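Dear colleagues,

As part of the handover before I leave the project, I'm documenting each prediction I ran so the next person doesn't have to rerun anything. This entry is a single chain, and its sequence is reproduced below.
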Amino acid sequence: MLENCILLSLFAKENLNRMSEQQLNLYDRLINEPSNDWDIYYWATEAKPAPAEFENDVMAMLREFAKNKKREQRLRQPDLEYLFEPPR
């Protein structure tokens, strides 16, 4: 689903390098366990409540990111070069 690809890849670019191991495990679970991509999108945009097992600090971070308070244009996934850059 394109919406999730854009949302999750930009979220990952901005946040993965500063997440703890526990947060990384929660994020991995979030992107791999739900069988319906629309569920992740609805939870992130607060259109539907997330199940208790996904209510955690990573979901809170994703929800805050989805609000796009800086009004950034988010039209495509980031290039993957950021994966090879040193942490900031």
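The chain has a mean pLDDT of 86. Helices lie at 2-15, 21-32, 37-44, 57-66.

All the best with the project,
I.
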